[in-house]
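The instructor's notes for this session suggest beginning with a concrete chain rather than abstract definitions. Hand out the sequence below and ask the class to guess, before any prediction is shown, which regions might be ordered.
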Amino acid sequence: MKILMLACNPNLYSHRRLVEAATTRGHQMDIVNTLRCFVNITSHRPDVRYGTVRLTDYDAVIPRIGASVTFYGLAILRQFEMMGVFPLNESVAIGRSRDKLRSLQLMARDGIGLPVTAFAHDTQRTEDVIEIAGGAPVVIKLLEGTQGVGVVLGETHKSAKSVIEAFRGAKVNILVQEYIKEAGATDIRALVVDDKVVAAMQRTGAEGEFRSNLHRGGSAKPIRITPEERSTAVRAAKCMGLNVCGVDLLRSNHGPVVMEVNSSPGLEGVEKATGIDVAGLIIDFLVRRAKVGRTQTRGRG
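After discussion, reveal the predicted structure:
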């Protein structure tokens, strides 16, 4: 099997592990820098080029597209879809998950547990937004933030109001969510592959930090999740249309709530915490499912 990975940094742990898992199974894996690809948009014979090389004859493509290059990365991925190359995750599904507001709306439509969330443009609605989210403390998030960047805890009504008005004054879009106090500084990352939770870890934030992201000094340990948490993670993945993803959950007094669905989850934390070969499971999924033209949208989304 011939697999292509779209990734700007081939040296990341996740990317090296995917290459290792593919090669040990006898498959060929090539990595190309997403931003150095360009496309020939033409009828009947669309293609993707990398320098002087036409990227053809691949059975599958693994998009490891960073949040900062989402627009260009999805354009390249759509071109592969139009060529009939099977994507690990489709461009439409990745686009849904990268739009935090849209992803929450979709999950709310499907009845998936979520923290109460408010969104408004007008700063005159700040009081209403805080009230909808249950009052201070509230969590204020930039729509474009990743890895815990752009997430602020408004501990008092006054501080929450000041942060919201400052963000809106800077012309950036934010979400305001209820603070799940009972979760503390912990969350659960469930790795979903092919509609199954294959690994789960509990992440705990560094001392004095309410965010549990490993990139911000948090720690991780394996955890046995409940059937309800497992079902919630799988439903969230299906709602986005993602074959592989990380679903971030909080344990609230009213059951599990989804904070985010990550279409390019890091593998280092979960593999080291659980000892599970997640990279191998991802490659095995591609072997089972990848067929020419099997992409559902074929770049039409």
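Then share the key points. The first strand starts at residue 2 and ends at 6. The chain has nine helices and 16 strands.
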